[in-house]
Amino acid sequence: MVVVFGSINLDLVAQVARIPGPGETLAGWSFMTLPGGKGANQALAAARAGAKVALFGAVGRDAFAASALANLETSGIAMSGVAAVDVATGLALIHVDAHGENAITIVAGANGEARATQVPDAVLGPGTTLMLQLEVPMGEVAMLARRARDRGARVMLNAAPAAAVSDDLLRMVDVLIVNESEAAHIGSEHELPTMPEQFAATASARHGCAVIVTLGPRGALAVRGDERIAIAAPPTRVVDTTGAGDALAGAAAAALDRGASLRAALADGISAGSLACGAHGAQAALPLRGAIAALAETL
Prior knowledge:
This protein has 299 residues and is an alpha/beta fold. The protein has one domain: UDP-N-acetylmuramoyl-L-alanine:D-glutamate ligase (3-Layer(aba) Sandwich), CATH 3.40.1190.20. Helix content is 33%, strand content 25%. It has nine helices and 13 strands. The protein has helices spanning 38-48, 63-73, 138-150, 167-171, 180-189, 196-207, 244-257, 262-276, 289-296; strands spanning 2-5, 9-15, 30-36, 53-60, 78-85, 90-96, 102-107, 129-132, 154-158, 175-179, 210-214, 220-224, 227-231. Strands 5-4-1-8-9-10-11-12-13 form a nine-stranded mixed sheet, sandwiched between helices. A four-stranded mixed sheet has the order 3-2-6-7. α1 (38-48) packs across α7. It is globular. The protein starts with a strand and ends with a helix.
């Protein structure tokens, strides 16, 4: 089983000719509400990649909660671990201009109330892959990682968005997933190389974990001890890259959870991320297991 502890958001997206300046009011030409949050996105990505998934997090007791949870509730994900709290559901307020550039304000809301204690010990064992990110309180992430590691679960951390990550947390992680900027951020904080390959090799050696660094259109690389893997991304018609990183993380978690090798998990992750770039929206674009497997066979 893949257990995800993380954020659940509703994205409020307005398309405008240009990003408004201070004090300026502009007319937009379209508006969408889209479910999001890295925890929710990765849970759905893992479920669509074939894993049994349970999600733990928090939403508000407000009108936004139902929209934020809509895709999850129809996907077979176990939702009993999602708490309803007296704080507004997490929101992302997004302006997207005519060139595809954006300006985003994130309001954590209920995500700040997510607690490691929501996850029972019974689901943290050798048969569990725990997926973590950094859009819920860092202390809760670290606490849950330690409990899971002590009970024999596989601990995966997508260290995103970039934030200060302690050595103690990194020591609890079996698989670390970062993009190039997140690798550079952690590297500069922990006296590690900041270039992707050197970062992955040094971090893997220091912390005894597998390290995956995503490289955008160039694919991704993975290092675990003496094992070095690099897989190029397949040719992709890019429509929207919003959910690519979460698609990769969720699909990789699903593959490792069913016993796949690190290389096979990386191939599944790159395939899912590439396919997710071909449609609009983070969750709407997440691919199914069959499509992921077909593309992964070509890598």
